[in-house]
TrEMBL record:
Source organism superkingdom: Eukaryota
InterPro entries: Papain-like_cys_pep_sf, Peptidase_C48_C
GO MF entries: cysteine-type peptidase activity
PROSITE patterns: ULP_PROTEASE
GO BP: any one term: proteolysis
Keyword terms of this UniProt record: Hydrolase, Protease
Domain Ubiquitin-like protease family profile intervals: 1-106
Stated name of the protein: Inhibitor of growth 1
Similarity-based family: Belongs to the peptidase C48 family.
Pfam families per the UniProt record, alphabetical: Peptidase_C48
Length: 118
C-alpha cells in the first residue's frame, strides 16, 4: 500500500486521521491551498482543520473546501476550519509554489504562519 492519502482514492481512510497528520495541497476554484489537520502552534484536535492560503482570502474557495472536509469527516457538519494568515503571493500565478512551500514547512514541523517566518 502506498504511503500517502488521496481524498478521492481507495488508500484514503478517514479513520486514521485521529492518529496521523493530513497535509494536502488542494486545487479550489483556480487556486492552490493547503488543507491540514496539523498546526505546529496548536495542540492536535480531531475536528480542527487549517487552511494555508497565499491569497489570505478564505471566502473565495471556502464552499469547495467545506465539501471536501465533510467527505473526509464522514459527512459531519461539525468541523472547525481555521484560516491561518501566511505570506501573501505577489504574482497572479504563484499560489502553487506557495502551497508547496507551506506543505513542506508543515511536514518539517515549521509553522508557515506569517508571524513565524517574517
Amino acid at each position: 500500500m502506498p504511503d500517502y492519502f488521496s481524498i478521492e482514492g481507495p488508500p484514503f481512510n478517514p479513520d486514521v486521521l485521529d492518529e496521523s497528520f493530513f497535509i494536502q495541497v488542494a486545487h479550489a476554484k483556480n487556486h492552490w491551498v493547503v488543507i491540514s489537520n496539523y498546526n505546529p502552534s496548536e495542540p492536535a484536535c480531531s475536528n480542527n482543520w487549517y487552511i494555508y492560503d497565499s491569497l489570505n482570502n478564505p471566502g473565495y474557495y471556502l464552499y469547495t473546501i467545506k465539501n471536501v472536509l465533510k467527505r473526509i469527516n464522514d459527512g459531519s457538519r461539525f468541523i472547525k476550519i481555521n484560516h491561518i494568515p501566511v505570506s501573501k503571493q505577489n504574482g497572479s500565478i504563484d499560489c502553487g509554489f506557495f502551497a508547496l512551500g507551506y506543505a513542506l514547512a508543515l511536514a518539517m514541523d515549521i509553522d508557515p504562519e506569517m508571524s513565524s517566518i517574517l
